[in-house]
Amino acid sequence: MSKTIPPQQPKTNSAFPNPSLSPTNYLPAQSNAVQSGQLALQALKKVPEITVYFWIIKLLTTAMGEVTSDFLVNHLAPEIAVGLGLIGFVVALVLQFVVRRYVPWIYWLAAAMVAVFGTMAADVLHVGLGVPYIVSSVLFLVALVVIFAVWYLSEKTLSIHSIYTRRRELFYWAAVMATFALGTE
After folding, report:
1. What is the chain's mean pLDDT, rounded?
2. Number of domains forming the structure of the chain
3. N or C, fewer C-beta in 10 Å, the chain?
């Protein structure tokens, strides 16, 4: 024998007999506008989210940059290798600045070319010009501190989650280049 179970009425707060009017189900129009604005800013961001995958790809591009730089300098005339590295670096950054949102292959091409050309530039300082590691390390550290100070003073933030203006993106890539140069030392 089957027993029919009557449908249950939703539980209501006595102050809000209609559940659709309950404060937990009601979002004011302003909230939707704020959400739309946040989505628009998210679409304009020019950098990836920092996740474990970011760090894996970052380590791989850094290693690839070191190896590529060494290969080119050892298999071509150093002047030609550095010239090619500079051209690749400039082209990658121009592409990065031309796009209006985060495009993964363009971002990572720029990061890879920072690694390739950054390694070449550091090698030119040490091998070509004979600058001691301690001197170049201090110079790159001072450059990084200056970049962060000017960035913060002009933008009032160092957040990578707010890279959606040209100026912030310039500061971001300057910091990336300085940290790469410092880490290559």
Report:
1. 80
2. 1
3. N
